[in-house]
């Protein structure tokens, strides 16, 4: 609610400018899915979708071959005709057809000249701009009377620490561009699973934010995964049993070499193979065994498929880009198939 109030103030302040328009924030990651691994860093992550300002359009261009756990894109910005269009009763300036002299006289600059590198939306420039917006807008948010705000430096997101004297919250605001009308976004930071070091059963070598090009926007499936967990929550007879299973494996078995992202992927797959009607409290131990057995089969086959990419069994309410379900499923254990020593180590850990 606090972040929504802040977003509305920022959206109002940029409504007649050339800057992107922030949409309603979406909570992503384990903290908003109802579980937290033992190594959770205590940060609440919010994805703020950005819409192009009037007279501009966003187009996504792949910038990687798609053989990683997170594909990467660039957001190309194009000017589009805004002649004869109005916003809030005012005629919009057309960046495509008005002269630069007139635009300068009216203190108007296109998005291409403010937050882009070449023709592409720049993550670091966007992060700096959004942080400046938060600074200038904070005192106009009613909650600012109760919460003290401190900024944490970051080049690819907006990191905040909020405290009211009793409790302290750490918030990371990520920026994203939606792919069409789907639940798949490109985002400023790599997904949680792609940060830090790899494990023996991780999904390949992670892409670190500090070596990514400033125009690279990794694809994230966090919103689709969160919707999947909400879909499951409404159908399992024992509320949260699947989350308790996930919590158990990621906390008690920490240090065995299997990352929390691997356990999460396995649990999601088991939720689509074991009928949801069988997730009852009295069957807790059996469901734990199902999850362990599924992981064992994947290790033997050296294949664990990505839960979203190439998955044609997702619930209908999860919206994907048209081509995504037809993609060849990504193998998160591909490195085990290539490296016999890594496979032996993973089997020993199992």
TrEMBL record:
Bilayer topology term: Single-pass type I membrane protein
Cellular localization per UniProt: Membrane
Domain Mab-21-like HhH/H2TH-like: 258-308
The keyword Transmembrane belongs to this UniProt entry's keyword annotation: yes
Keyword match Membrane: yes
Top-level taxon: Eukaryota
GO cellular component: membrane
Cited Gene3D superfamilies: 1.10.1410.40
Name of this protein: IPIL1 protein
Organism of provenance: Erythrocercus mccallii
Gene: Itpripl1_6
């Amino acid at each position: 609610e606090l972040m929504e109030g802040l977003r509305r103030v920022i959206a109002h302040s940029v409504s007649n400018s050339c800057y992107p328009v922030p949409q309603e924030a979406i909570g992503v990651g384990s903290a908003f899915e109802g579980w937290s691994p033992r190594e959770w860093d205590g940060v609440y992550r919010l994805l703020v979708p950005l819409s192009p300002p009037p007279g501009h359009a966003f187009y996504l261009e792949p910038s990687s071959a798609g053989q990683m756990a997170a594909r990467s894109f660039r957001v190309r910005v194009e000017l589009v005709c805004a002649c004869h269009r109005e916003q809030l009763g005012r005629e919009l300036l057309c960046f495509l057809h008005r002269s630069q002299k007139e635009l300068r006289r009216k203190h108007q600059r296109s998005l291409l000249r403010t937050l882009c590198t070449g023709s592409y939306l720049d993550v670091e420039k966007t992060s700096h701009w959004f942080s400046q917006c938060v600074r200038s807008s904070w005192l106009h948010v009613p909650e600012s009377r109760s919460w003290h705000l401190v900024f944490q430096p970051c080049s690819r997101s907006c990191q905040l620490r909020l405290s009211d004297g009793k409790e302290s919250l750490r918030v990371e605001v990520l920026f994203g561009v939606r792919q069409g009308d789907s639940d798949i976004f490109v985002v400023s930071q790599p997904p949680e699973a792609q940060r830090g070091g790899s494990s023996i059963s991780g999904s390949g070598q992670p892409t670190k934010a500090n070596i990514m090009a400033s125009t690279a926007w990794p694809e994230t499936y966090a919103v689709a995964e969160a919707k999947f967990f909400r879909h499951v929550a409404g159908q399992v007879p024992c509320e949260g049993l699947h989350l308790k299973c996930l919590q158990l494996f990621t906390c008690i078995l920490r240090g065995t070499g299997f990352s929390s992202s691997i356990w999460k992927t396995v649990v999601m797959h088991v939720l689509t193979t074991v009928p949801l009607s069988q997730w009852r409290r009295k069957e807790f131990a059996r469901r734990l065994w199902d999850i362990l057995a599924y992981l064992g089969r994947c290790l033997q086959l050296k294949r664990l498929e990505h839960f979203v990419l190439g998955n044609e069994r997702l619930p209908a309410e999860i919206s994907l880009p048209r081509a995504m379900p037809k993609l060849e499923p990504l193998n998160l254990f591909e490195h085990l198939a290539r490296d016999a020593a890594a496979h032996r180590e993973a089997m020993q850990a199992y």
